[in-house]
Design goal:
12 strands; two-stranded parallel sheet; 135 residues; 33% strand; eight-stranded mixed beta sheet
């Protein structure tokens, strides 16, 4: 049965895709390879997994202000996430979201059944995330 989570929309629009749940913040500069979308930060729990075409769920961004440049390159390469759901906003992530221009939601009352592999519909306009059953 689908589960609807409510939060606050940050970037308007709708997108659907498989969830990649990151259990730790990702570094903007050197954390993701924009050519492949792969998390290359060596100590990151999701090291080796790709953000390309996913609903990227993460606690926030860390590191330098490289998020905007890296996400811009990933968008040009076609390796960017299709939507982002996050917990903590900071200037690094805010600028990255502006450049990436994909639906984004924050402030969910619960993370519910969000886990890697489930399919989620993100509505950045309404501030909702609909979790569907795994395909």
């Amino acid at each position: 049965m689908p589960e609807l989570l409510r939060g606050r929309g940050v970037v308007a629009g709708q997108a659907s895709g498989p969830v990649l749940l990151c259990t730790a913040p990702v570094s903007g500069w050197g954390g993701i390879d924009p050519r492949t979308g792969t998390i290359v930060e060596s100590r990151h729990p999701q090291h080796g997994q790709s953000v390309a075409g996913t609903v990227l769920v993460l606690p926030g961004a860390k590191g330098s202000s490289g998020w905007s440049g890296q996400f811009h390159l990933a968008k040009l390469q076609g390796t960017a996430p299709c939507a982002i759901v996050f917990t903590r906003m900071n200037s690094k992530l805010a600028l990255g979201l502006v450049v990436l221009d994909v639906p984004a939601v924050t402030g969910l009352e619960t993370t519910g059944s969000l886990r890697t592999g489930v399919v989620a519909d993100v509505d950045g306009t309404a501030g909702t995330v609909l979790i569907r059953k795994e395909d």
